[in-house]
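Supplementary Methods, section 5.1.

A reviewer requested that the exact input to the structure prediction be made available. We therefore reproduce it here, unchanged from the version used in the analyses.
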Amino acid sequence: MFYGMIALQSIVMDRIEGGNLQNELEKLQVLDSPIPERRIWKFITQMVLAIANLKIHELVHCDIKASNILLVDDNHIVLCDFDATVKSDLKMHENTRLTPYYAR
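The structure derived from this sequence is encoded token-by-token as follows.
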């Protein structure tokens, strides 16, 4: 008897021990310590590269926020949580998870 098949898609990643950017920002706020500008620019550069890589694969992340940016070390980050990611060739009205405010 055939019961059907569930197709699961997963992304396997290395374990990142450094925590996420949200926790780091909260910790620095408590200490009243600013993030060095050089470090901010490194993070921005890496995020642009990550988003450009998604664009190459015609994907839109749809949930970029500080808690979804993992800290590998002081100078490297990794984007995570691809649950809301969609193909960018979808029309806005065909996908109820998106609003017109999401960039393409």
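The helical segments are 21-30, 37-56. These observations are discussed further in the main text.
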